[in-house]
Amino acid sequence: MSDHAADAAGLGRPRAAAFMAPALLLITAFLVVPALWTLVLGATNYRLTGLAAANPQFVGTGNITEALSDPGFGWSLWLTLLFVLGSAIFGQSLAGLSLAWSLRSAPKVVKAVVETLVLMAWILPSSVVAFLWVAYLSRHGGTLNAILQTPGTDWLIQHPMASIIVFNIWRGTAFSMLLFSAALSAVPPSQMESARLAGAGTLAQLRDVVFPHIRGHVLTNTLLISLWTFNDFTPYLLTAGGPNHATEILPVFIYNRALYGGELGYGSAISFLMLIINLVIALFYVRLLRERR
Amino acid sequence: MSPQAFLRRVGFVLFLAVVTAFWALPMLWLVTAPFDAHPGLTVRWPEWTLDNFRRLSESPYAFSSLRNSVLLAGGAMILVTVFGALAAYALSRVHVPGRGAILYGMLLLSSIVTGTAAMVPIFQLMFTLGLIDDRTGVILVLTGGLLPAAIFVLKDFMDATPRSYEESARVFGASPTQVLRHVVLPIARPGLATIAVWALVNAWGDFLTAYILLRDPTKTPAGVVMYTFYSEGGQANLPLISAFSVLYALPVVVLYIFVSRRYGFRFHGGIKS
Amino acid sequence: MTGVPLSSSPIPRRSILIGTVGMAAAALASCDKASSSTSSTSANATSRTVTLSIAANAISGGKSSKEADWFAKYVIPEFIKAQQAKGVTATVSFQPSGVDDEQYKSKLALDLKSKSGADIVSLDGIWVGEFAQAGYIKPLKDVVGSSVTSWEGWSQIPEAVQANAAFDGNTFGIPAGTDGRVLYFNKKLFAQAGLPANWQPTSWTDLISAGEKLATLSGVTPLQIDAGTAMGEATTMQGFLPLLVGAGQQIYANGKWQGNTQAVRDVLTFYQAILAKKLEDSTLQLAAKGRDESFGAFAQGKIGVLAEGDYFWRSVINPNGGDAPMATRDSDVGWAFIPAMAPGKGVGGADYASMSGGGGYFLNPSTPYPQQAWELLTFMSSKAAILARLDGAAQVTARKDVNSEVLSKDPLLSFVSQKVLPLTHYRPGLAVYPQVSLALQQATADVVSGKSPADAATAYQAALVKALGGADQVTTS
Fold first, then answer.
1. Mean pLDDT rounded to a whole number for chain A
2. DSSP letters of chain B?
3. What residues of chain A lie within 8 A of the CB of C283, using their CB?
4. What is the pLDDT of residue B264?
5. Taking Cα atoms as reference points, which of C181, C274, C273, C177 lies closest to residue C224?
6. 3-state secondary structure of C361
7. Domain ranges of chain A
8. What pLDDT is recorded for position B182?
9. Which of the two ends of chain A, N or C, has the fewest CB atoms closer than 10 A to its terminal CB?
10. Burial zone of C220 (CB within 10 Å; 0-12 exposed, 13-18 middle, 19+ buried)
11. How far apart are CA A109 and CA A245, in angstroms?
12. pTM: predicted TM-score of the whole model, two decimal places
């Protein structure tokens, strides 16, 4: 978060409060209340059906200890961190930034085509995207095998994590690309011009002129896509968590262990654990941001 | 052209070619399957037909759902962008104690509310408020879930606008609201456009909230209808699904082009600094 | 109601906090129960205007489109007409869904929990137990009164099928249909492999030897018995449970679940045998869309024997509008009972085994018009209405009179209705069943990935005990 910006427009506290009120109202009513309620459910053995639906019992931290003692949980957490590192931090961020950077100087038509393609990958519903990638990575008659001339390779079975990481990069880069496009547009062209005239290469330009302006955006973007990727359930549609738990990231873990059987109390408790982990990640980023100042 | 410049040019073209291929190739199925009389799970040369679209038009809810999606996603987009911008501006300019913690806290909570575990609280909350089977209810829930991230992103853009502009405007007698409208918002426009598109895409793709809260089939959005093209045993109706995906994606792409053209992700104002 | 005791002695702050949270949780989770008044069975019985709604997991133009159209074009208009003749103005509507069963179930649970929702709801038979335990549905006699027993249709519905809409001795609704699992085989491939066209295996060894003969044909996968977690409930319903019944045990009997028992290990050993001899494609069991792929492969004549429900015949490989249509279905596809492990080894001394499911229509206990809702329900379950729903297609319904009329032209469905249903079994409709099913699927997945049946059975036992919260309801041997 940036430091206090001076109230140059003379907004004043009362008006600021009025500006924030609608958002805060909606957030409190439709986000905070259900979210906290969900977390409280995590302390019960509540189920959607069955006896525990009529008479939920308070179990305190029982659900949490059950989740932590599940050997699959640690494995799932590890896979999720890999997934986030590979597809969000290194994948989508870098891809988004390089796309935003390159497309600035690309011809209009090319820019429109590439942006539309990247955007389509993001807009299409998960169920359709799953079909696209199953067709793409299919063992018999898959498009990738046809192009790489590797017939018979079952990508989703033989390289499951790599497949879903690449898939997620394909799916989510659009947001980073949009954000960085907007961020780059705020970089004063005069500074870029002077740097170029002074003979700075692309890398130097990026490092000295561009990066200081977009530093905040880079961290915001990375934090957001890390959080979103952490909670992303879509890979389930490609691999169903398999083969043999090889891609059982935490959202899939929650689904298999809790939601499949309608155990909403247990599921909520695992959500709480994921929240704590997300908090740790967020704090890590905040630290990073503070250090760089 | 110097050899260095030439190599850079080649690298640039190569990069764009690879990128285009990477994104386009998996979508081949969407080019062939909707027009294929018997599409399968792999890409193949189709038996060309427009029959799939005709069958879609016979389904009573296919097209009405697209209209509902425009209402729901459009509503959420407008609320998120407007309220988000106001809140982000206020947070950016005025020091509110603990604002960092609050914002991070809300951001983390938003990841719970979009999950399935929250469906019981959301349903019961909306039931108590009498907003079941009401599209407004869906818009409100979606907006609530999207606002934290929107404010988070927009605050960065608000922070980046130079104070000097606002100060000069104040000197010339502009009120704070005028400053916001005529000075800050135009500069933050690329950020606003980004959030608008992001909110639209997220709301457009929503399934669970709309499904849980709506009952009347004429109010159901496309995100829900997308999941009904399956047979009783769970087998996908590929002809209808592929055809519907094209119709599903089209409005959003059109809207993106419109927003991009009109409000731009480039700021074309005159900044000399 | 809560598990936290309230005491009146000085309470340390932490307990107060925990207690408050606990009470809040319990209160929140059940806050909707507070304002409820049980409507008497004769509420609004003489009303001149009636508003009713029906909810089912069907939607026009999408899933179960025929059922949705039946409501719109037959049930609603005809019922309104019939009511008109009695001088009652009826408004009837249908609430479509058409999504994945689990999501439909969740939405229904939320509606019933908050005492709202449609007056008549369609439920899968396996949900009856858990919905009843949660108080979402009530026995028919409690909602409508003792007049329910005088409905003419009960005599047309076999006891076993009625049990699909019952729990703990009470009936909650009227079953709509049922199904059965059989072995489908490709007669053409059988001819090439030297197997008879009227094949009927009598033991698991028969099945394996047929598979071995089919393995000699190139490009053909001999068997497909669903396994692994990717195929979900299909693994349990089409694979594990019929085999378990064939090994002599039901998954749940006399209040106890099968844990690490001989029968369970027998089933897992069978899976290991067919996978080790490469009679089954192990990769197919691991892929997310493996089941769909197997259907396509069978339709193209690449799989020899496939275990599935009758829906495979009428909706998947059906040459008219099936998902994976097989033009030569009627001539090339044969069917056989799923054999017991050995003759007479099945539950109750049976030689063959099968599993059945099926759903029905149930009354919402909060309906403001219980008598009229019952009228609509019986109308929907009348012979004429069911014939209208089938609209010429053949399907195994709950009524014997309808079945004898429509199934005669479909040999497979007649086979299921007359031969398979008498020896079939049903799953226990308890809330914990999905977790047990998942544990079974995981056990088969373990075998697919190379674990020994003994190890897989031990892991299954552990998962089962965890799901049940204790070992006291588990049998081992």
1. 87
2. --HHHHHHHHHHHHHHHHHHHHHHGGGHHHHHGGGBSS--SS-----B-SHHHHHHHHSTTHHHHHHHHHHHHHHHHHHHHHHHHHHHHHHHHS--TTHHHHHHHHHHHHHHHTSGGGHHHHHHHHHHTT-TT-HHHHHHHHHHHHHHHHHHHHHHHHHHS-HHHHHHHHHTT--HHHHIIIIIHHHHHHHHHHHHHHHHHHHHT--HHHHHH---GGG--HHHHGGG-B-TTS-B-HHHHHHHHHHHHHHHHHHHHHHHHHT-SS--S----
3. 139, 154, 157
4. 61
5. C274
6. strand
7. 73-292
8. 83
9. C
10. middle
11. 44
12. 0.89
Domain harbouring C72, CATH code = 3.40.190.10
What is the arithmetic mean of pLDDT over B158-182? 83
- Chain C residue with the nearest C-alpha to that of A44: C25
Exposure string over A56-69, b if 16+ CB within 10 A, otherwise e: bbbbeebbbebbee
User: Other CB atoms closer than 10 Å to residue B10's CB: what's the count?
Assistant: 10
Q: Where in chain B is the domain with CATH 1.10.3720.10?
A: 60-262
For residue C135, how far is the Cα from the chain centroid? 21
Amino acid, single-letter form, for residue A151: P
- Strand ranges for C349-408 from DSSP E: 352-353, 355-356, 359-363
Q: Are C364 and C39 in contact (CB under 8 A)?
A: no
Q: Is the Cβ of C27 closer than 8 Å to some Cβ of chain A? A: no
Inter-CA distances, A24 with A20, A168, B80, Å:
6, 32, 12
The closest of C226, C254, C220, C257 to C240, measured between CA atoms, is C226
Please, are residues A262 and C434 in contact by the beta-carbon 8 Å criterion? yes
Poorest-confidence range of B55-59, C20-24, C203-207, C282-286? C20-24
- A260–C435 CB contact, under 8 Å: yes
Q: pLDDT tens across C175-227, in order?
A: 999 999 999 999 999 999 999 999 999 999 999 999 999 999 999 999 999 99
- Tokens representing A57? 């019992």
Q: Please determine, looking at this structure, whether the domain spanning A73-292 carries the CATH number 3.40.50.10330.
A: no
Q: How confident is the model at residue C13 (pLDDT cuts 50, 70, 90)?
A: very low
Closest by CA to C108, choosing from C81, C131, C91, is C131
CB contact under 8 A, A143 and B26: yes
The interface pTM score, or ipTM, of the predicted complex is 0.89
- Residue C7 in domain: no
Measure CA of the first residue to CA of the last residue in chain C; give whole Å: 37
* Burial degree of C154 (CB within 10 A; 0-12, 13-18, 19+): middle
pLDDT class of A49 with cuts at 50, 70, 90:
confident
Could you tell me if residue C280 is inside a domain? yes
Q: What does the pLDDT look like over A104-133, one tens digit per residue?
A: 888 888 998 999 999 999 999 888 899 899
- Whether residues C291 and C323 share a domain: the answer is yes
Using CA coordinates, name the residue in chain C closest to B209: C107
Please give the single-letter amino acid code of residue B114.
T
> Within an 8 Å CB–CB cutoff, is residue C474 touching chain A?
no
Q: Of the candidates A41, A50, A243, which has its C-beta nearest C130's C-beta?
A: A50
Distance of CA B123 to the CA centre of its chain: 23
Nearest CA in chain A to C432: A261
Could you read off the pLDDT of C340-391 as tens digits, one per residue?
999 999 999 999 999 999 999 999 999 999 999 999 999 999 999 999 999 8
Q: Which residues of chain A from 154 to 193 reach within 8 Å of chain B, CB to CB?
A: 170, 175, 178-179, 181-183, 185-186, 188, 190
pLDDT-derived band at C150 (thresholds 50, 70, 90) equals: very high
Instruction: Answer yes or no: are the C-beta atoms of A41 and C101 closer than 8 Å.
Output: no
Residue C109 has pLDDT above 90, yes or no: yes
Task: Domain count for chain C, please give it.
Answer: 2
Contact (CB<8Å) B230/C32: no
Rounded Cα distance, C4 and B117, in Å: 24
Please name which of C11, C36, C6 lies closest in space to residue C23, comparing C-alpha atoms: C6
